[in-house]
Amino acid sequence: MESIDSLENSVVLVIDDEKETCILLAAIIHKNRLKAAYVHTLEDAVKSISKVTPVLIFLDINLPDGNGIDFLIHLSIHYPEIHVVIISAFDSYKAKAEELGAYAFLIKPFSKEAVMDILSTSVNHA
Questions:
Q1: From CA 32, how far away is CA 81, in angstroms rounded?
Q2: Domains of the chain
Q3: Rounded to two decimals, what is the model's pTM?
């Protein structure tokens, strides 16, 4: 994974506290010829986004320092141009995420094909 400092604006950011999820998503993102970066906390996400605005964010709901749904609200206010995909093992958040402007909702465990579909449509519309 490249440092967020060295990436251009074509980065896809993964915000998830599970290292395995981050590595898997980054690998799929790279296979689609996109740049990937990941962080494990909302604090690190804020720092990363202030350096490079990603075109797409995969955002987990349960993070060590906050709730992804609350962060989705922050992103929609301050960065409305960023597509945000909520990722969660619980589909009970789907309606709320969509109501708050999530681009998509991805249920864990997810398939490579589902991620590739989101990347294809999101990056082409970004």
A1: 21
A2: 4-111 (3.40.50.2300)
A3: 0.91
